[in-house]
Design a protein that fits this description.
Elements (H helix, E strand, L loop, with lengths): L1 H17 L10 E7 L5 E7 L6 H22 L7 E6 L1 H15 L24 H8 L1
Helix pairs in contact: 1-2
């Protein structure tokens, strides 16, 4: 299923970029696909560069889903092309909300991942045997 999900994501993205004439639908950035085991339907998650246009893009993707399924049926080598259900990806908004909360309490991405490489270490250890001899003398 993972292979089918990735293939659907890639093919839908390419079709939107190259074959769909609807400029609004082309603003969709496909972030993931979850296909049902029986290939009855597939949830297609997307985001846009401008989150305010998400609902408009969603409406246009729904209008283009018949054409997308038709094109997918010619491209894919699967027994059945699933019905496409387009959904705005909630993880992008969720991540932005988490970033805002962390920034609000004084934490940001720079505070994660260990010590700051610009800080000097007071207890620097010798790295080679020659440095070790010099260090001991």
């Amino acid at each position: 299923m993972e292979r089918i999900n990735k293939q659907l994501q890639r093919e839908i993205s390419l079709l939107l970029e190259r074959r769909i004439k609807n400029d609004v639908a082309r603003n969709a950035i496909i972030t993931g696909v979850e296909c049902a085991r029986d290939l009855e339907f597939a949830r297609v998650y997307f985001t846009t560069a401008d989150p305010a246009k998400g609902d408009l893009v969603l409406a246009e993707l729904k209008n283009a889903k018949g054409a997308l399924r038709s094109m997918l049926s010619r491209i894919l080598e699967i027994r059945r092309v699933p019905d496409l259900m387009f959904l705005i990806d909630p993880s992008v908004e969720y991540g932005a909300r988490i970033d805002a909360l962390l920034a609000g309490i004084g934490l940001n991405n720079q505070n994660f991942g260990g010590p700051d490489p610009d800080d000097e270490q007071e207890d620097a250890q010798p790295e080679s045997s020659a440095e070790l001899r010099d260090y001991e003398n």
